[in-house]
Amino acid sequence: MKRIKKLPALIKISRPVNALMTFLSIVIASVVCTVDDFSYTKVFLAASAGALAAIGGNIINDIYDIEIDKINMPERPLAKGILSKKEAVVFYTTVNIIALSLSILAGVYSFIIVLSAEVILFFYSYILKGIILAGNISVAFLTGLAFFYGGVVVANWKYSLLPAGFAFLINLIREIIKDMQDIAGDSQQGVITLPQKYGFGFSKRIIAGLSILLVAATIFPFFLRIYKIEFLIIVMVLVNPMLIYSLKLLFDEDSTKNLKKISSIYKLSMVIGLIAIYFGK
């Protein structure tokens, strides 16, 4: 009965929406990169392993962020005391072992990628997130790695490089925005981030530069005949206007509520970008 009561907390610490995003990213990348036969079993195993690795990353992040979350996100299970640190460590170890077990069934390269992701996720929480831009780049790299992983699963990794690059840029932007959101707790805990070191104004200029680069980069795949007209239409009608609107919001207001809204818009733009890639294949 006690374990059943802990279930909502375990689900919350897993961040299931983020895990689902990882799963879908790997599946869609596999579909987009498939040339010959599509192995449903292999892709499902690989995507499940990737999603579980992402869950492990969420858990270890909460473990190391207990004190920061007491300020920034006091409703988190560990910060609130609903879960103990020991329970979280056991859960973290379990999901990582299951992820590695599933990945080896999808092939040796799958195992190597999932193991590498788990190692990077651990060191991100342990030390990298405290180094200016190193943590941001690590998380963005792992998001891009999900798309690369999907290409590897279907033995066509070269075709995954473009969506991986787009995912990297969007998530690098989101990570800087999240640092702006968390500046109060990070400052109190001595975590030095880009917004804390150089201020919101400088951070906004970096985000604007990356966003403009992203908007410009979305045009080239069509003209290089990598993706069809469907890709360009979806990107130009939906994705790019969302990115431009996000920049307007960013320079309008610095409130945590506004920053959270902007981060959500960038996440949604990545989802729609995946749809554009799928239909533009």
Description:
The protein has 281 residues and is an all-alpha fold. The chain has a single domain (10-279), classed as UbiA prenyltransferase (Tetracycline Repressor, domain 2), CATH 1.10.357. It has 14 helices and no strands. The protein has helices at residues 2-14, 16-33, 40-64, 66-72, 77-80, 85-105, 108-126, 134-153, 161-181, 183-188, 194-217, 220-223, 229-252, 256-279. Helix 3 runs parallel beside helix 7 (108-126), helix 3 (40-64) runs antiparallel to helix 8 and helix 11 (194-217) runs antiparallel to helix 13. The model has no long low-confidence stretch (mean pLDDT 89).
CATH third-tier fold name: Tetracycline Repressor, domain 2
The name of the CATH superfamily reads UbiA prenyltransferase
Could you give the order of the helices and strands?
A: HHHHHHHHHHHHHH
Helix content: over 70%
Number of strands: 0
Strand content: under 5%
Summarize the structure.
This protein has 281 residues and is mostly helical. It has helices at 2-14, 16-33, 40-64, 66-72, 77-80, 85-105, 108-126, 134-153, 161-181, 183-188, 194-217, 220-223, 229-252, 256-279. It has 14 helices and no strands.
List the main descriptive attributes of the protein structure presented here:
281 residues; mainly alpha; Tetracycline Repressor, domain 2; 14 helices; 82% helix
